[in-house]
Automatic annotation (TrEMBL), chain A:
It comes from the Eukaryota. Its main location: cytoplasm. This is DNA-directed RNA polymerases I and III subunit RPAC1. It comes from Xiphophorus maculatus (Southern platyfish). InterPro entries: DNA-dir_RNA_pol_30-40kDasu_CS (IPR001514), DNA-dir_RNA_pol_insert (IPR011262), DNA-dir_RNA_pol_RpoA/D/Rpb3 (IPR011263), RBP11-like (IPR036603), RNAP_Rpo3/Rpb3/RPAC1 (IPR022842), RNAPI/III_AC40 (IPR033901), RNApol_insert_sf (IPR036643), Rpo3/RPB3_RNA_Pol_subunit (IPR050518).
From TrEMBL, chain B:
One of its GO terms (molecular function) is DNA binding. Pfam families: RNA_pol_L_2. It comes from Xiphophorus maculatus (Southern platyfish). This is DNA-directed RNA polymerases I and III subunit RPAC2. Keywords: DNA-directed RNA polymerase, Nucleus, Transcription. The lineage of its organism: Eukaryota, Metazoa, Chordata, Craniata, Vertebrata. HAMAP family: RNApol_arch_Rpo11. Belongs to the archaeal Rpo11/eukaryotic RPB11/RPC19 RNA polymerase subunit family. Residues 23-96 form the DNA-directed RNA polymerase RBP11-like dimerisation domain. InterPro entries: RBP11-like, RBP11-like_dimer, RNA_pol_Rpb11_13-16kDa_CS, RNAP_AC19, Rpo11-like.
Length: 351, 130
């Protein structure tokens, strides 16, 4: 069992899950709040205590622990991941012909939401300010895509077939039918990293013989705050590390019941002198349900809490960029925000 | 005040008549909880600061009112400046720590330099290379 924590230390560093509510929700370790504590910002101390452990990383998702940072800053990273890391997405749709059953505006909306595999760091934001430049699509801020497809009867279909897949050609329009049309020098610059939709199998529309689509699209750089289609993540979230402490030994039938109150793998039963004794083995797996507090004989045996400065981040990419790249980009965005205001203050001082 | 004139202002200072430099409301345009709350945390960590808080004026206005009151007559721009600097340094440390993770690809620069001509590298640096 862990060494008991002093009361003040617990208020400062743990969020407590009580039977009727959550205690110590807010950060309170500010200078002047606690006599005997020096809560002034100390970069050295922060650097000593801060750590990141990558738990899982693949091309679409990652999980990592960020320890020793305040919720205000961890939350800033999360918010930036959702809404301020830029990506490229279809912004303008020029419909030259659409005889399908899908209305133009619905089709345009569907196209906008398709993730486009293109590194947004290699493009500029398009200037919306001056109207004259509005229509000009240039190689540094726009990707041009084309979707040109017509459905026809399959001449080789058997007579008595009723399966559309056999009867028609091109009757399902997928994202793989979207083609990239390089502008200017883009063909050379992006030769290795072919620009295309992330997924090939997103259904855009269904056609019947004679119906056709003839569409040109312009992708621009944007951020999720403007439209969710620009958001680079499927989800980005964090949770605090759960901490379960047994205050007294729990044995026998009570131990069995205690084990069942938590997620699988949190509590284990050990054999001690012929009796089963409960032991917390991995509180990280817990969902922080408060089931145990409904058992009157158990609720005083355990303390449920969460570690205030231990964030378990989960980042799931849409596939445009690797999840670890997204996190570094998010951190850079927050740095850029600080720099913007510092520059602004310095330029005002000079005037 | 800051940024008045032809450009859209980024930062403005609002002070009540007769108030000293220690009590200032900064208006930060195009910002929200993301910068507001993290910057508030850093500034609250400063013992010279008596009060720091922010509000979002209205959901359809993209600006925040960021209030700082200092102890002992220090101008409120000082804690704001050091708060921004501290937050910047915190991010730098988080970034450095993240990039040395064995699991994490040493991202940005490697990917960028692989197939990009120096021409592009010069032109597209604004967001990516701080």
């Amino acid at each position: 069992m862990a060494a008991p924590m002093s009361n003040v230390e617990e208020i400062r560093s743990r969020v407590i899950l009580g039977e009727f509510g959550v205690k110590n929700v807010h950060t309170t370790d500010f200078p002047g709040n606690y006599p005997g504590f020096d809560d002034t910002w100390d970069m050295k101390r922060f650097q000593k205590n801060f750590r990141i452990d990558v738990v899982h990383l693949d091309e679409n998702s990652m999980e990592f622990d960020m320890v020793g940072i305040d919720a205000a800053i961890a939350n800033a990273f999360r918010r930036i991941l959702l809404s301020e890391v830029p990506t490229m997405a279809i912004e303008k749709v020029f419909i030259y012909n659409n005889t399908s059953i899908v209305q133009d505006e619905v089709l345009a909306h569907r196209l906008g939401l398709i993730p486009i595999k293109a590194d947004p760091r290699l493009f500029e934001f398009k200037n919306t300010g001056d109207e004259s430049a509005e229509e000009e699509a240039s190689e540094i801020d726009t990707i041009q895509l084309q979707l040109k497809i017509k459905c026809s009867r399959n001449p080789r279909a058997s007579k008595d077939s009723s399966d559309p897949r056999e009867l028609y050609l091109n009757h399902m329009v997928y994202s793989k039918h979207i083609e990239w049309v390089p502008i200017g020098n883009q063909a050379d610059v992006f030769a290795d990293s072919c620009i295309r939709p992330v997924h090939d199998d997103i259904l855009i529309a269904q056609l019947r013989p004679g119906q056709e689509l003839d569409i040109t699209m312009h992708c621009v750089k944007g951020i999720g705050k403007d439209h969710a289609k620009f958001s680079p993540v499927a989800t980005a979230s964090y949770r605090l590390l759960p901490e379960i402490t047994l205050l007294e030994p729990v044995e026998g039938e009570k131990a069995e019941r205690l084990k069942r109150c938590f997620s699988r793998g949190v509590i284990d039963l050990e054999e001690v002198r012929g009796r089963k004794v409960a032991k917390v083995v991995n509180s990280r797996l817990d969902t922080c349900s408060r089931e145990v507090l409904r058992h009157n004989d158990l609720k005083n045996c355990v303390k449920l809490g969460r570690v205030r400065d231990h964030f378990i981040f989960t980042v799931e990419s849409t596939g445009i960029m690797l999840p670890d790249v997204l996190v570094t980009e998010a951190i850079k965005v927050l740095m850029a925000k600080c720099q913007t205001f510092l520059n602004e203050m310095n330029s005002v001082d000079m005037e | 005040m800051a940024g008045e004139g032809e450009k859209k202002p980024v930062l403005e200072m609002v002070q009540a008549d007769g108030a000293d430099d220690g009590c200032v409301t900064f208006v930060m345009h195009d910002e929200d909880h993301t910068l507001g709350n993290s910057l508030r945390y850093m500034i609250m960590k400063n013992p010279e600061v008596e009060f720091c808080g922010y509000t979002i004026t209205h959901p359809s206005e993209s600006k925040i009112n960021f209030r700082i009151q200092t102890r002992g007559g220090i101008p409120a721009v000082e804690p704001l400046r050091s708060g921004l600097n501290d937050l910047h340094d915190v991010c730098q440390h988080v970034l450095n720590t993240f990039q040395v993770q064995p699991g994490a690809v040493f991202c940005c620069n490697v990917v960028l330099q692989m197939n990009i001509t120096s021409y592009l590298w010069e032109k597209k640096v604004n967001y990516a290379s701080i």
